[in-house]
Amino acid sequence: MNLNYNDVSKLPSSLSNLCKLTSLYLCHNRLAELPELNLPSLRELHLANNCLKELSSEVLGGLRGLRVLDLRENKLDELPDDITLLQMLERLDLANNTLSSVPCHLGLLPHLRSMPLEGNPLRLLRRDIVQRGTRQLLQHLRDKLPNPASSYPGFGEDSCHPDGGTFKEAAEERLPKLPDKWQLRNTRQLVYSEKAASVPEELLQSAVEAEVPAVDLSGNTLAALPDKLAELSGHVKELVVSCNHLTCLPSYLATFTHLVFLDVHANRLDALPDLSALKFLRELNMTHNRFTSLPECLRGSQSLEILFAGDNRITEVDVSLVASWPRIATFHINNNNIGYLPPTLGNVTQIRSLLVEGNPFRVPRAAIIAKGTNEIMSYLRSRVVPGAE
């Protein structure tokens, strides 16, 4: 069910009658809270860009089958301890909230492979740990557990996960077993994060045969993406190759025309191939690389909503490029080498989240930057010279 881009402010409890519902999209609405729901078949819940301030234990208890929970761009300042009731969770997107920390027992979730946290004021988690990627972050959280795993919600002494053994054993071991095509068809994603210099050919072949829509090769030491990956171009919607040693991306990425999400952060990239054919690309994470400019290859993209370009070497902001993205809502260019922030950027009014701190420009002043996006954009507009574009 797709209810994105509406003015929904409240959900009826009668939603629980949709007992066979598997996906629910509610992004870009005005939801401030969720009712208690019982949706045992729900696998994906997308709530990005709402006004949620908290999640109740009652809500989580009725959603235990979730694989994907997207809470990006809300107002969450903490997660409930009962978040680990979602023991089948594979992707938990918490980016751009107001979290100062996350529960350590999240590290026990046996299937969790992706947990974006950028854009949160994390005071109790070191930045370098967050930047190492989900795998190492979860290990760090497990290492900090003050109590036995059995003391946390959903993790009894004898609690077992679908692969056998206890949840703690599953989380700590994460043995690099290569799934066959039947397993990949069931999970609908290829995840291979083993600090490896190459990806097994047989694993990629299984992914091709399973027609997986999501590929995660993060946390390896890949110097180049395998040619075999090109055979997945007709199916993949999410591609994560972060935290590798990539110095360039293959031109065959232009054939991934269904791609919605691309994460290349924490590599050694200074350029992107031509991505103009990616008409559905909604989110690009290119942080922590060596880029000196914004992605010109995406000029005119009608679908790009989220661009993370922080921690690079970008020297200027091409406002005409940013303005060519009619749906751009999140634009992060923090920690670059930008010496001048053009006032006309304030006219790109579709921007809802702007991060610019950590650049050498002197205007706007740090006091204005600290007040957030609305104040920055308003200040920039006030400095636009009449007639300027």
Automatic annotation (TrEMBL):
Name of the gene this protein is made from: LOC108678286
Matches recorded under SMART domains: LRR_BAC, LRR_TYP
Organism domain of life: Eukaryota
Protein name per Swiss-Prot or TrEMBL: Leucine-rich repeat-containing protein 40
Signal peptide start and end residues: none
InterPro entries xrefs: Leu-rich_rpt, Leu-rich_rpt_typical-subtyp, LRR_dom_sf, LRR_domain-containing
GO cellular component entries: cytoplasm
Xref: SUPFAM superfamilies: L domain-like, Outer arm dynein light chain 1
UniProt KW keywords: Leucine-rich repeat, Repeat
Tagged with keyword Repeat: yes
Pfam families to which the protein is assigned, alphabetical: LRR_1, LRR_8
